[in-house]
Specification:
Layout (H helix, E strand, L loop, with lengths): L10 H17 L5 H19 L4 H13 L10 H7 L6 H21 L7
Amino acid sequence: MDDPRLPMDNNETEQLMKQIALGCKNWLFAGSVVGGERNAGFLTLVSSALRNDLDVWLYVKDVLDQLLVGSTDYGGLLPWNWAASHPDAIRTYRVEERRDRSAHRAARRANRRPGSHCV
């Protein structure tokens, strides 16, 4: 663990898992196993949109509309491909927030490293 590039924690992963943990009680009432699978698929779609900094409402609405009219271009509906054709739906402020948080974490890690403090 002497490599300073490795993060001291895995908060980002834990935050993603928190979404799933919070929904467990609600998922008990999905109605059936098939209902639970559909719910899981929908939540995966929403989580992917969030991870790609998309406006979730616009993304999900467009994907469902495309599927309803019979589109079979499933690759084009993936969040990273969809974002390329809908740049206005990217939430740029989220990118800036993540960059600021990353810089703040890097500064804190630098201060925790042995020998980084001035004497």
